[in-house]
Design goal:
The chain has 236 residues and is α/β, with parallel strands linked by helices. 43% of the residues lie in helices and 14% in strands. It has an eight-stranded parallel beta barrel, surrounded by seven helices. It is globular and about 55 Å long.
Length: 236
């Protein structure tokens, strides 16, 4: 299927809706070395009405696509020496995600240091040359990074990294202002993501004008959820 049809199908499915992020990385309670269990979280998300799933690791991309039949935003989290970014940082991860059948490939498009010495603009140009027809989602932390990624030819912007770079605002909740500004100024869909902890915040995020939102930790990371309750109780 040609890129425009895949992109249009993904956007039509997700407009005004919540995409559930189902991720587990080494060190988390739901990460099992022997096999993926995230497909079970994805099953629940699909039954709840999620139009797509965002997930990390090749095995989870494959397992979740098989389980749900939903479009998958795939990424790989890996920390290489010299790289400040860790979401799909090199072409190896892009190659693996394409081979696994990711409908959308998500990658860090912040301006942080890359171990190969290249800029994010150069990396995006290399990806586009090799894979002109894949759908790219840029995970960014600031307005300037979002505009830059849009001009570099990505298909979707995600506010995923806001608060997770040293120079972006450190907020307790979602970065509504970033969502609002990018939705107004970028000529591609913006997906609001990051620290959406409850339904009221999800609704507020959609009201900023974003195309859709992604919620992960508040739904699929039990340790994070339990700690949020514990911290609130201990505070009083």
């Amino acid at each position: 299927m040609e890129k425009s049809k895949v992109l249009n199908d993904f956007l039509e499915r997700s407009r005004g809706k919540m995409i559930v992020s189902c991720q587990a990385v080494p060190g988390e309670p739901l990460y099992v070395e022997e096999q993926s269990v995230m497909y079970l979280m994805a099953r629940a998300a699909a039954q709840a009405g999620s139009p797509a799933i965002r997930t990390s690791s090749i095995r989870d991309v494959v397992a979740i696509k098989k389980e749900t039949g939903l479009p998958v935003i795939g990424l790989v989290k890996v920390q290489y020496e010299g790289y400040e970014s860790y979401i799909t940082p090199t072409m190896k991860e892009v190659d693996d995600l394409v081979a696994a059948g990711s409908d959308v490939v998500a990658l860090d498009c912040t301006m942080r240091k890359r171990g190969d010495g290249r800029s994010i603009n150069e990396f995006l140009a290399e990806i586009r040359e090799k894979y002109p027809d894949i759908i790219l989602m840029a995970d960014i932390s600031t307005y300037e990074e979002g505009i830059n990624a849009w001009k570099c030819g990505v298909d979707i912007l995600g506010t995923t990294m806001s608060g997770y770079t040293s120079y972006s605002p450190k907020l307790d909740g979602p970065d509504y202002e970033l969502m609002r500004r990018l939705s107004q100024d970028a000529d591609i869909p913006v997906i609001g993501e990051g620290r959406i902890h409850d339904p009221s915040q999800a609704v507020e995020a959609l009201r900023t004008g974003v195309w859709a939102i992604v919620v992960g930790g508040a739904i699929t990371r039990p340790l994070e959820i339990a700690r949020r309750f514990m911290n609130a109780i201990q505070a009083v």
